[in-house]
Amino acid sequence: MSSSVSRKRIRKDPATRRAEIVGTAAAIALAEGLECITLRRIAEELEVRPGLISHYFPAADDLVAEAFGSAATGELDALVPAGRPGETPTLRLARFLARTTGDAYDTMSRLWINARHLSRYRPELRERVVGQEAAWRGRLGALVQEGVDAGEFRPAYVSVAVVQILVVLDGLGAHANTGTAEHPAAVSGMAAATAENALGLPAGTLAAPAEGAVPAVRNAPDEGSAPASARTTAASTDAFTVTSGPRSASGAAPAARTEPSEPLEPSESSAP
């Protein structure tokens, strides 16, 4: 019986082929949802046999988890990139917050909603969601700590400030399926206002900066004037946990997994 998939294809090294499969699955997840990822669908998109996809991902759930992880890591790297020479933590945080509005961010918020829901039933995806939550807290926490070390931020507890910011962003992102374009400025700016309060910054410090601009960093208030909510939310950084919101949910990061070495791609004759 003839196949609709051409037998003539270019052999690729395992790492390249795997990245191609994951990238295709991530694109489908962002455009249509994680439920639309199947081994056959990816094979059709790449014009290869389904057996080739199952060679790298024997179960569709493994590919779903990998696709979400790839998309979420890309989002984090784009929103909180490494600092450039001369950039202050305040500028980096202001730019991060400025990037958390618009169509691209709403698309990722929809994917987070989708992944959080499906993770109730798919252990592989749940593990990846927990890992991405930890990555978000770690990346933003490192940025806040840089601001503390530079004397720009004065949070009562770094971990509390990080979760306060992420909880607000998650709450706003929950509206992604119905649209956020109509949010008034007072709503879309809630994350920046929350960050300013949590970090002891004057109002307006984290307003969206123009490219190249450096937000003014005024003297932070005394320790006694730190926000009461931040001081009383936790007795210590280590004791604090929270369970709401896809990017802010608590939980220890899963142990780092060692990926098995990539097998050689099967020959065309061995593909089903």
What does this structure look like?
This protein is an all-alpha fold and 272 residues long. It has eleven helices and no strands.
In round numbers, the mean pLDDT is: 78
Unreliable segments (pLDDT under 50, ≥5 consecutive)? Answer: 210-246, 250-272
Counting helices, strands and paired strands, the structural category is mainly alpha
What is the C-alpha radius of gyration, as a whole number of Å?
Answer: 22 Å
Count, helices: 11
**Mass-distribution shape:** elongated
Query: How many strands?
Result: 0
* Straight-line distance between termini: 12 Å
Labels describing this entry:
272 residues; mainly alpha; 11 helices; disordered C terminus
In short:
By secondary structure, the protein is mostly helical. The protein contains eleven helices and no strands. The longest helix is centred in the middle third of the chain and has 27 residues, at 123-149.
Task: Chart the SSEs and their pairings.
Layout: H1 14-32, H2 39-46, H3 50-56, H4 60-79, H5 89-98, H6 103-118, H7 123-149, H8 158-173, H9 185-188, H10 190-199, H11 228-233
Helix pairs in contact: 1-2, 1-4, 2-3, 4-6, 4-7, 5-7, 7-8, 8-10
